Amino acid sequence: MSDVTIKDFEIVQTVFNEAGLDYQLELEGGKISVMGPSDIVSSEIGILFSRLLGNWVYPRRLGRIFDSAGGFILPDRNLKAPDVSFVKADRLRRSVRYFAEMVPDLAVEIKSQSDRIPPLQKKLEKYIELGATVGILIDPDEETVTLYRPATEPVQLTNDDVLSIPELFPGWEIAIPELWPPVFDEEE
């Protein structure tokens, strides 16, 4: 059996959509991966991160932020969709009604309940190898944020740290605890 192409992938995606199946798909090495819905903690972290970043990015017109539905055709011909991604304005002046044919400048993966860390680390390392400026692994279970950059070892941040990405977002920073879903106490 031959490898699946982007065109084949689009056909499968259309069939799934027409059947009412809401799966997230990725293409890697000619094989389609089907991912089910994420747990709600991971989903909420994605929204919180996107909101905190978007509040800085959009007023300054720095670029575009995408959620996990935004697909990227990478130079290795794989199709990936990070949980959150960012592309600088000068690289994507206008969004298109298709997959972005580029590597995002920022790729964020958020560990869900069923994920294992090593595959997520490999995924982020691949984004960096292909040209991403920064990769981020958010682990809600350990409450850590690990940053990946070219030619350096990953740096792990904890709740005592502040996240900043000056090479993409000069001046932007957030305390790591701001990424975790709030706990609402019962009214007394």
Q: So what's the overall shape?
A: globular
What is the helix fraction of residues, given as a range? 25-40%
Average pLDDT number = 90
The helix/strand series, from N terminus to C terminus, equals HEEHEEEEEHEEEEE
Q: Beta-strand level of the residues, as a percent range?
A: 25-35%
Sheet with the most strands: spatial strand order: 3-6-7-8-9-10
Model description:
With 188 residues, the chain is of the alpha+beta class. 26% of the residues lie in helices and 26% in strands. The strands form 4 sheets. Strands 3-6-7-8-9-10 form a 6-stranded mixed beta sheet, sandwiched between helices. The protein is globular and about 50 Å long. The mean pLDDT is 90.
Please provide a brief summary of the model.
With 188 residues, the protein is of the alpha+beta class.
What are its keywords?
188 residues, alpha+beta, six-stranded mixed β-sheet, two-stranded antiparallel ribbon, 12 strands, 26% helix
Layout of strands and helices, then pairs:
Layout: H1 6-18, E1 24-28, E2 31-35, H2 40-60, E3 63-66, E4 72-73, E5 79-80, E6 84-88, E7 106-110, H3 117-130, E8 134-139, E9 144-148, E10 155-157, E11 162-164, E12 173-175
Parallel strand pairs: 7-8
Antiparallel strand pairs: 1-2, 3-6, 4-5, 6-7, 8-9, 9-10, 11-12
